[in-house]
Amino acid sequence: MKRKPRLLTVLLPAASLLALAACGSDNGSEDSGSGENNTEQNSAEEENAENDQAGSEGGEVNLYTSRHYDTDEALYEQFTEETGIEVNVVSGEDDELIQRMEREGEATEGDVFITADAGRLYRAKEADLLQPTDSEVLNENIPENYRDPDNEWFGLTKRARIFVYDPERVDESDLSTYEALTDEEWEDRILIRASENIYNQSLMASFIEIKGEEEAREWAEGIVNNMARDPQGGDRDQALGVASGEGDVAIMNSYYFGQMLNSSEEEEVNAAENLEVFFPNQEEEGTHINISGAGVTQHGPNSEEAVQFIEFLSGEEAQDDFSEANYEYPVNPDVEPSELLQSWGDFEEQDINLTILGENNAQAQMLMNEVGWK
């Protein structure tokens, strides 16, 4: 039986990474004294040490993350409450954090790297920034196709690359596949962001794997021909463009649409409430899926705590919160999607291991550049 979703009630500001100083003590020197006074002193010191350890309980874990959601911050606080392990957060752009770890090398303070898109996780692995993690918990909580074959990274949340459309101008029966959007009937009607966006690169990489290079190229060229405007803005901007009449169908990540429906910006809410969701390729290979994921860094000082932290994020409570509060699909098969996500309907997913998205990334970028995808 699925666990009933619970609401997050604690939000906290992201913590800053604590400065870590190598302050060793001279614990190697032997005690030159003996007798009752020394015994009592040693007992007192041992008791104080035990008390200090009990106070800190699990130590700390240093997190490098590109995610910036209140949901995540609340989960970090919950993890600390349950384990005593402090979570020190360094936030940054995905590629900047990868470059930072490369610069820091063996001196890095980062223990866990969290980023969006399997392509970026692949980059971190190829740069030898992650280490294999042997965890029965992670293997049980995360299906094989959402984790690295060498267990160097693990998916934590899923998002689908969906269509959103204006039902006043588009009949749902006219929608079918990503490939069908290259037909002449969709000329000047498609909105999608730039080729430099890794979500589009990963979508293209999946086509290369499933359809082959030539069909992938033809798809990219057809999308360019049918764009309603030159690519601009993020995923939410594509939906806003459909709502304003600039285009009729937008390609975007599902969780962005959930965020729009629950946004503090009235324009986003109004736009999303007048649009509909469609999952493409249901009669074909399935809808493209990507992930947000995590890996234990190669040289971090707190590897055991890092594994414990990722295991916590893959558990049912954390997975529930990701879905309820951030509108992401859980990777843990024992957790149901939130009511909002369920209201969009069930769908079939592409059946590929997501490491392919990284392996095919360079080829995807090359093909998109060749067809003039700006």
From TrEMBL:
<dbReference type="GO" id="GO:0046872">
    <property type="term" value="F:metal ion binding"/>
</dbReference>
<feature type="signal peptide">
    <location>
        <begin position="1"/>
        <end position="21"/>
    </location>
</feature>
<keyword id="KW-0408">Iron</keyword>
<feature type="compositionally biased region" description="Low complexity">
    <location>
        <begin position="23"/>
        <end position="42"/>
    </location>
</feature>
<feature type="binding site">
    <location>
        <position position="255"/>
    </location>
    <ligand>
        <name>Fe cation</name>
    </ligand>
</feature>
<keyword id="KW-0813">Transport</keyword>
<dbReference type="GO" id="GO:0030288">
    <property type="term" value="C:outer membrane-bounded periplasmic space"/>
</dbReference>
<dbReference type="InterPro" id="IPR026045">
    <property type="entry name" value="Ferric-bd"/>
</dbReference>
<keyword id="KW-0732">Signal</keyword>
<comment type="similarity">
    <text>Belongs to the bacterial solute-binding protein 1 family.</text>
</comment>
<protein>
    <submittedName>
        <fullName>Iron(III) transport system substrate-binding protein</fullName>
    </submittedName>
</protein>
<dbReference type="Pfam" id="PF13343">
    <property type="entry name" value="SBP_bac_6"/>
</dbReference>
<feature type="region of interest" description="Disordered">
    <location>
        <begin position="23"/>
        <end position="60"/>
    </location>
</feature>
<keyword id="KW-0479">Metal-binding</keyword>
<feature type="binding site">
    <location>
        <position position="256"/>
    </location>
    <ligand>
        <name>Fe cation</name>
    </ligand>
</feature>
<keyword id="KW-0410">Iron transport</keyword>
<keyword id="KW-0406">Ion transport</keyword>
<feature type="binding site">
    <location>
        <position position="68"/>
    </location>
    <ligand>
        <name>Fe cation</name>
    </ligand>
</feature>
<dbReference type="GO" id="GO:0006826">
    <property type="term" value="P:iron ion transport"/>
</dbReference>
